Amino acid sequence: MKNIKNSNFVPILSVLLLTIIWGYNWVVMKQSVQLLGPWEFGFIRNFFGAIFLFIALILLKKPLKLVSPVFVFIIGAFQMVGFTVLVLIALVNGGTAKISVLTFTMPIWANILAYIFLKEKLTLSQWLAILISGFGLMMIFDPIHVLADFKSMSIAILSGFFWACGAILFKRYNLKYPHSDLLNLTAWQMLLGCIPIVLYILFKGIEVYEVNNYLIGASLYNAFFCNAVAWILWLYGVKHLKTSSVSILSLLAPIIGSLAAFIELGETPLPNELIGLVLILSGIAFMMILGIRSTSR
Known about the structure:
Layout: H1 2-6, H2 9-32, H3 38-59, H4 69-93, H5 96-103, H6 106-117, H7 124-141, H8 150-176, H9 182-204, H10 213-240, H11 252-265, H12 271-296
Helix pairs in contact: 2-10, 2-11, 3-4, 3-9, 3-10, 4-8, 4-9, 5-8, 5-11, 5-12, 6-8, 7-12, 9-10
């Protein structure tokens, strides 16, 4: 048991389970934003996910007190708006496989931000891995031929950047409040992150295209599994694993999402896009493996 604990078995298992939940959800989200506006679906996903977590806090008799409201609000804004809502906006017109992989450029941004703000060193090999992923981005964007979903792809990359910002902020929060309850933080960041979403919806008006059984099921899947459960798994992994290695298993999520989009939605990437996707995932995987090896020495 001691060896299992020392090998970070539980945090790694939590991230693996997360990839399965989030992986298939790319197809679910893609179909959901055809029925409901991305901001509206983002609110449902975040707000009801937070409600599930607060119920869990009460049942488990954990503290409900909010520690550092402003700090938690900032984390929530990056995670719930900068990440979740931007992903949904990108999926409205963008291809599922491309959007999923471009969003998962998060480890690239996370490592660069960790290098700047957390003083985590990057080796020459890790910079090479970032360069490989950069070539992959160029292949997908195809600068010679302007693609119709250029805007969607840009938004997807931005969502990955904001996701990385949220992860770095969580690291800083955990350093400042090392005894904070993970479930409490997850619930509050989701709830507070809904504030700017609601304000924007009120400003622009509600967008609802069609309400059916699929949308109801997708909403429940997103609120309970993809938010309430998955965010706990994600933050648990971030808390117990180094930033440079926490996302190695999460790379399965865009792969699962791409396969699901091919099977269920019939989406087939162009040759340059497929090469780009492989380069990005290879670069990120290489970078994460290097990070894991450096921590084991």
